[in-house]
Specification:
With about 325 residues, the chain is mainly α. It has one domain (about 1-325): Di-copper center containing domain from catechol oxidase (di-copper center containing domain from catechol oxidase, Orthogonal Bundle). Helix content is about 35%, strand content about 5%. It has a two-stranded parallel ribbon. The protein has a two-stranded antiparallel ribbon with strand order 2-3. A two-stranded antiparallel sheet has the order 4-5. It is globular and about 45 Å long.
Length: about 325
């Protein structure tokens, strides 16, 4: 029960719309400080700055007071691991990950002096040649396939990881194991099917089952671990791309889709064994802002003190001051 009480305490902590330390509005008055680009459209200098910021995060000391955390990266990963059963297979899936992408982007900017925005991996471009993607270039990208063994090229060679769904004291390496078959879920046909969805619930389930699964399963290895997949730095480019796809769907009928949210709060499948935490019970559901098992705009998105909590309503507009982004 201790873990559940901590979770509830986190949800009860100040729910703030924390604007970035700077915001920039374009001529329409819209906040667009964070101009998020596809990885292949970054210059080599921009790619190097992003990779350096990620390495910085892995070398920064922890700051949240967890005695098991070896660095700031552990704390960022933990934010996803510790609540996997309330952010997957639920209506809050896309909004929670939108805010998590912002948390990661914000920490890079404020703690590692990163001057860019969170890039994304435009995965549809690599359906015919996954291994040849620019994101896997060992010189300017994230390193390549390791066939289930430790990654041995690129900036994250032999990267040591510490958190799994069972323990925060592990010591294992980053792995990848490509599947071109699974990766076909990222193709344009699947994207078009999702884009044609008429409701959030239909869109959410489509995007999760096709492009989302394609990215995780296509890369494989650490990325295939539902719980600890943020341990692979490529996770953040993958989920930013998924957020871009959701934003494109929202923009197709923005006046209606900025408030279109639905879905369950109790997942159909348990992902997390850590601390004997299985499904969310009343200890969490009483504090998430929703009627039982119904996702609403009032739903609290817990960021585990990485950044202040927010509600789904706070993140629905990508151009609002909380996310303050546009995809270019």
């Amino acid at each position: 029960m201790r873990f559940l009480n901590l979770f509830a305490a986190g949800l009860l902590s100040a729910t703030l719309t924390a604007a970035a330390p700077y915001v920039k509005r374009n001529e329409t008055g819209i906040c667009t400080t964070n101009k998020r680009k596809a990885w292949q459209n970054l210059s080599d200098e921009e790619k190097a700055e992003y990779i350096d910021a990620e390495l910085c995060l892995m070398n920064l000391p922890p700051k949240l007071g967890y005695n098991w955390a070896k660095n700031r990266w552990d704390e960022v990963v933990y934010g996803h691991v510790v609540q996997s059963n309330v952010i997957h297979d639920v209506g809050a899936f896309l909004p929670w990950h939108r805010l998590y992408m912002r948390a990661h982007e914000y920490i890079l900017q404020t703690e590692c002096n990163y001057t860019g925005a969170q890039p994304y991996w435009e995965e549809v471009l690599d359906v015919d040649d996954l291994a040849g993607s620019v994101v896997f270039d060992p010189e300017t990208g994230f390193g390549g396939n390791s066939n289930g063994s430790c990654v041995t090229d690129g900036p994250f060679t032999q990267l040591q990881l510490h958190i799994t769904q069972y323990t925060n004291y592990a010591n294992y390496c980053l792995t990848r194991d490509f599947s071109t078959t699974i990766y076909q879920g990222a193709n344009q046909t699947h994207l078009d099917e999702c884009y044609a969805s008429t409701t959030y619930e239909e869109a959410w389930m489509c995007y999760v089952s096709s492009p989302h699964t394609a990215g995780h399963g296509g890369v494989g290895g650490t990325m295939l671990d539902v719980v600890a997949s943020p341990s692979d730095p490529l996770f953040f480019l993958h989920h930013t791309n998924l957020d871009r796809l959701w934003w494109e769907w929202q923009q197709a009928n923005l006046s209606a889709r900025l408030t279109d949210i639905s879905g369950r709060n109790v997942p159909r499948t348990s992902y997390l064994a850590q601390n004997n935490f299985t499904y969310p019970g009343p200890e969490i559901l009483d504090y998430d802002g929703d009627p039982y098992n119904v996702t609403t705009l009032n739903h609290t998105l817990w960021m585990v003190d990485l950044i202040p909590n927010a509600t789904i309503a706070d993140v629905m507009d990508l151009r609002g001051e909380l996310i303050c982004a546009e995809y270019v």
